[in-house]
Amino acid sequence: MIDFRPFYQQIATSPLSDWLETLPLQLKEWEKQAHGDYGKWSKIVDFLPDLQAEIIDLKNAVKSDRTFPLSEGEKQRIIHHLKQLMPWRKGPYHLFGIHIDCEWRSDFKWQRVLPHLAPLKDRTILDVGCGSGYHMWRMLGEGAQMVVGIDPTELFLCQFEAVRKLLNNDRRVNLIPLGIEQMQPLAAFDTVFSMGVLYHRKSPLDHLTQLKSQLKKGGELVLETLVVEGDAHTVLVPTDRYAKMKNVYFIPSVEALISWLEKVGFNNVRCVDIAPTTLEEQRKTDWLENESLIDFLDPNDHSRTIEGYQAPTRAVILANK
Ligand SMILES: C[S@@+](CC[C@H](N)C(=O)[O-])C[C@H]1O[C@@H](n2cnc3c(N)ncnc32)[C@H](O)[C@@H]1O
Which residues bind carboxy-S-adenosyl-L-methionine (predicted)? Predict the structure, then answer.
């Protein structure tokens, strides 16, 4: 099982120390009711060898390697373990010559987001809905002091720990398996990211308020989410599924989203990027069995989802507390 004690020790002397009032107890409770396969997945992390990387690149990719390459047999053994943690959605990872070619080219999103951010160097960062943690490693690559991800999906926690093990067990990045709504307001982070989460929340204004409660005064929010075309009064509430996803609740226009952020008290709200999701960014690979974007679009008109809604387009919005 994954041991969170090193994280508690690490935050005890940091601006996150107040979190120790609630987190250890919450994680004890979480462990009792974690996903039935959590024990199996966490054992796979234990089975991975302790390899020492001589080369780590988090600035241009998420990559580790050593000068003396792994034997083909060692490589295949590691691939076998990692494939038991499928589906791998967010990546890619390049670890000791193994390319985990995930469904999403998360590096594309990072390229859209990064140029607009306040420099991440020395910052304490929260990544809400961090998935397997791809962007957290890239934040570290930009010189962040500490990165904490929060994501309730146990499989992603185990993928994160597997990747961490193959990145010299770096402890400056940590993933806590809770939902943002369970997190005590800390007002302690310099930057809070929420990417790909807002449309999954039943109450988007509450989500924005929770994000604000984690930021220091003056800190930066990085919000990335699905948007639709339209004016300040346009919000798509899918009647059933959106792009075959059943947990999509609110997709606002950029103008509506900006007004929501202002309503909950953010300043300096601005949209810095809008981009349609392409078939190069989200596609089927050998690292997932499931369907991917091509199956979620109208086969005769890729500007529409299979349900007839606007095809996925995502915006990046920045704001300050
Ligand atoms: C579409 S993925 C986005 C992953 C990554 N942030 C990215 O942009 O590529 C949404 C993530 O939000 C997580 N999530 C769902 N509900 C959440 C909640 N209440 N709090 C935090 N994360 C949540 C899911 O487990 C999933 O990993």
Answer: 90, 104, 109, 129, 151-153, 180-181, 195, 199, 314
Q: Does ligand 1 have an atom closer than 6 angstroms to the CB of 254?
A: no
Q: Name the closest-CA residue to atom 13, ligand 1.
A: 129
Q: What residues does each domain of the chain span?
A: 4-320
Residue 116's region, left for phi above 0, alpha for psi from -120 to 50, else beta, is alpha
Buried b (16+ CB within 10 A) or exposed e, 232-257: eeebbebeeebbeeeebbbbbbbebb
Give the three-class secondary structure for 276.
strand
Known binding residue 129? Answer is yes
- pLDDT, tens digit, 9 for 90 and up, residues 53-68: 999 999 999 999 999 9
State the residue for tokens 């409660």.
213
pLDDT bracket for residue 1 (50, 70, 90): confident
Ligand 1 midpoint to CA 87 (Å):
15
